[in-house]
Amino acid sequence: MRRRRLLRAATAATVGITAGCLADESEPAPSDGGDDSGASDSSGDPGDGVGDIPPDWPSGAYADYDTTRVTAETTAADVLGAVTAAIAETDDQRYLGLSDADSLPEDGGMLFVYDTPRESLTFVMREMDFGIDIVYADAERQITRIHNAPAPEPDEDGNQQRYPGSGQYVLEVPYEWTDRNDVVVGDVLRFER
């Protein structure tokens, strides 16, 4: 555990503070339309001891999003934590991010999915009401960067809070969830997709 804490401290020193709603500067601005696919996938191991699907997530603007169970694990397959994540896979869904959510349950999250890995992604805290962690993962789902992104101040819109990274997947979870679960760069995200 001491080694993981040291790695986390070293990573925090080089990474800085992070945040939420996605803005990928390589993609065009979204249209007003959305994806209403509506199917729900609540995969997960009922015996994993990490909790069931939150009854209040996804809800509101995200109620029709597909979902998947995302588990953070060490490279030795030790489970560190798990969330039920709403899947953001269209331009509109990724642009909206969690901006319309009032809160995020401890075992809830949002998984941003891209068809191919991206070298340059930047997430912002646009219109966010709460802090989150932003977890970047590569095509093999190995975590490459973690940001702890606090909520914008009352007089800020969050657009200036920018959190860069690269990867094919980005997981947003409650603020400091990665710290509470000892998730560090090099760990792996597991999910059905």
Architecture overview:
By secondary structure, the protein is mainly beta. The chain has one domain (about 1-190): Jelly Rolls. About 10% of the residues lie in helices and about 35% in strands. It has helices spanning about 1-15, 90-95, 175-180, and strands at about 20-25, 65-75, 80-90, 110-125, 130-135, 145-150, 160-175, 190. Strands 1, 2, 3, 4, 5, 6, 7 and 8 form an 8-stranded mixed sheet that branches. Strand 5 (about 130-135) and strand 6 form a beta hairpin. The chain is globular and about 45 Å long. It starts with a helix and ends with a strand.
Task: Give a quick summary of the entry.
With about 190 residues, the chain is mostly beta strands. It has helices at about 1-15, 90-95, 175-180; strands spanning about 20-25, 65-75, 80-90, 110-125, 130-135, 145-150, 160-175, 190.
